[in-house]
Design goal:
Elements lengths: L2 E7 L2 E9 L2 E6 L11 E2 L2 H12 L6 E3 L3 E3 L8
Antiparallel strand pairs: 1-2, 2-3, 3-4, 5-6
């Protein structure tokens, strides 16, 4: 059985988060977050972090598993 909720971010409804087994699938309802449409997340907090990253233009490092920072963007040389 799937359970679904409207997911809000920064005061706006941005899509629907549906539980599918032990995972969650995001269905974007706002064009700005279309890159995450169909994304599978372990928990709602992971979606929130992904939404923050998209809202920041991909500049925010993502923390996973024990706080390790994974930043896929190349850094400019000093």
């Amino acid at each position: 059985m799937s359970d679904a909720i409207a997911f809000e971010f920064q005061g706006r409804t941005v899509g629907v988060l549906a539980r599918h087994g032990e995972k969650f699938i995001f269905y974007a309802g706002a064009p700005a977050y279309g890159a995450l449409d169909g994304g599978v997340f372990s928990e709602p907090r992971d979606l929130y972090l992904a939404l923050r990253r998209v809202a920041d233009g991909g500049r925010r490092p993502v923390k996973r598993d024990g706080g390790e920072t994974l930043d896929e963007r190349p850094r400019a040389a000093p």
